[in-house]
Design goal:
By secondary structure, the protein is an alpha+beta fold. The chain has one domain: di-copper center containing domain from catechol oxidase (Orthogonal Bundle), CATH 1.10.1280. The protein has 10 helices and 13 strands. The N terminus is likely disordered. Keywords: Copper, Metal-binding.
Length: 385
C-alpha cells in the first residue's frame, strides 16, 4: 500500500490486521446490524450495504458481551486508575502501528494519522458522532491490549467546570495524574503559536505529526476567537449545563449534529468544538497549521491526550440523547463525498446519510457501517454510562 503525505514523499508499508480486534466477529456483527436496520426501516432482506451483508454468518462467529462496562467521569477514578490511564496513553507512543502511517510508526501517532485522513468525511456532517464513537472505542481497546489498562474509560464532564475550565482537576500539574497546563516555553515551530507542555504527566511529551514536536497548548488564545467575551471565560458558556440541555432537546439526529458542532453558530462555538478552541495548540486541529505546508494534513487533534476524555464526554451526551423514546437508532442528515484534497474553506458535495453508509478507518481495524456504532451496549463495544 502506497500513501502520499504533504511532505512530498511516499512510503510503501503493508497494512496488517490488528491482533486484538476480532475482524471476523466484527464482520458478522456488521452484517447483523444492517439486517436489523433493514427491518426497522421495513426494507426487508435487501442488498443495501451489500459489502457488509455479503458476509456469511456461521454461528461460531456470533459474539455477545460478557459484561457491560460503565464509564466514569475523571473525578470518579482513583489515583491509581488515573495514573494507570495516563501511563497507558503514553505507552502507545512505544507501540508499533501495524503499517497505518506513512510518516511515523507508533500506535499513538496512528490515531492522529487516521483522524487526519479524509478528515472532512466525518466532521461537520452526520458521520461525526458514530465515527468518533468507534474511533474512541478502538483507542480504549489499544490501551487495554497494548498497554495493560484495566480501569474504566473516563470522560471529562466540562459542565462541572464551565466557569473555570482550565481550573479543572484534570489539568492538574501532578506528575502522575495531571494532564498539565499549557506550560511556559513558547513554541511556534509549524503554525499557530503555543506553549510546550512542561508540567503534569505529559511534561515534555513529543508527538510526530505532521512533524516531530512537543505537545503544545495555549490556554489564552480563546480570547482571539471570542474577543468580546460573548461565550464567557474560556468559552465556558458554550458548553455549560444550559447549552447541553438545549442540545439534548434537539428533535432529530440531524438537528443534534448541527447543534453539537454549532454548524449554524458564528465561530462554531459549541459543546464539541469549544473545548478544542479553549485549549488550542495541538488540540485545535486544522487551525493549528493553517497557512502552512501541512494545512491539509494538520487535523491532528488526537496529538492532544485530552482528546480522549473530551470525546468520551461528547459520546456520553450523545448516548444520553439516544435514551429518549425513538432515538436509539435514528440516523439522518447528510454526509460529504469526494473529500480528498479539498481545501478546508471549499464547500463539499453532500448526499443523504444512511445507517448503511460505511465508516472509514484507514487500517485502524475494519471499516464498519454506521448502524454498528449506534448502540454502545451491543458487541463489541459493550459499554454504557
Amino acid at each position: 500500500m502506497t500513501t502520499t503525505h504533504a511532505r512530498s514523499f511516499s512510503i510503501s508499508r503493508r497494512l496488517e490486521q490488528i491482533p486484538w480486534l476480532d475482524y471476523e466477529g466484527i464482520a458478522v456483527a456488521s452484517r447483523a446490524s444492517l439486517l436489523s436496520d433493514n427491518k426497522r426501516r421495513d426494507l426487508g432482506d435487501v442488498t443495501e450495504g451489500s459489502s457488509f451483508l455479503a458476509v456469511r454468518e456461521p454461528s461460531r462467529l456470533q459474539r455477545s458481551c460478557k459484561k457491560i462496562e460503565k464509564r466514569k467521569e475523571w473525578r470518579q477514578l482513583s489515583h491509581e486508575e488515573k495514573k494507570s490511564y495516563i501511563r497507558a496513553i503514553k505507552c502507545l507512543q512505544t507501540k508499533r502501528d501495524y503499517g497505518i502511517s506513512p510518516v511515523t510508526s507508533t500506535l499513538y501517532d496512528a490515531f492522529t494519522q487516521v483522524h487526519t485522513t479524509d478528515f472532512r468525511a466525518f466532521h461537520s456532517s452526520s458521520p461525526f458522532l458514530p465515527w468518533h464513537r468507534w474511533f474512541v472505542w478502538v483507542h480504549d481497546q489499544a490501551l487495554r491490549h497494548e498497554c495493560g489498562y484495566s480501569g474504566s474509560s473516563p470522560y471529562w464532564d466540562y459542565t462541572i467546570d464551565y466557569k473555570n475550565p482550565t481550573g479543572s482537576p484534570i489539568f492538574s500539574n501532578d506528575p502522575e495524574v495531571g494532564f498539565g497546563t499549557h506550560g511556559s516555553i513558547i513554541r511556534n515551530e509549524i503554525g499557530l503559536g503555543g506553549y510546550q507542555v512542561d508540567n503534569g504527566a505529559f511534561a515534555n511529551f513529543t508527538v510526530n505529526l505532521p512533524v516531530p514536536h512537543y505537545l503544545t497548548r495555549n490556554f489564552s488564545a480563546w480570547k482571539d476567537a471570542d474577543p468580546t467575551g460573548v461565550w464567557g471565560y474560556q468559552l465556558g458558556e458554550s458548553y455549560s449545563p444550559m447549552q447541553v440541555a438545549k442540545l439534548l432537546a434537539s428533535p432529530t439526529f440531524w438537528d443534534y449534529e448541527q447543534n453539537v458542532d454549532a454548524l449554524n453558530v458564528t465561530g462554531r462555538f459549541g459543546v464539541h468544538n469549544s473545548p478544542h478552541f479553549m485549549v488550542m495548540g495541538d488540540w485545535n486541529g486544522p487551525g493549528w497549521v493553517v497557512n502552512t505546508p501541512w494545512a491539509l494534513n494538520g487535523t491532528g487533534a488526537p496529538n492532544e491526550p485530552m482528546f480522549w476524555p473530551h470525546h468520551q464526554n461528547v459520546d456520553r451526551i450523545f448516548w444520553t440523547w439516544q435514551q429518549q423514546p425513538g432515538k436509539q437508532w435514528e440516523y439522518n442528515g447528510f454526509r460529504a463525498i469526494n473529500v480528498s484534497g479539498v481545501p478546508l474553506d471549499v464547500p463539499l458535495e453532500r448526499v443523504p446519510a444512511l445507517p448503511t453508509d460505511p465508516l472509514p478507518f484507514h487500517g485502524l481495524g475494519p471499516d464498519i457501517p454506521v448502524a454498528m456504532a449506534l448502540k454502545t451496549e451491543n458487541w463489541p463495544m459493550c459499554y454504557t454510562y
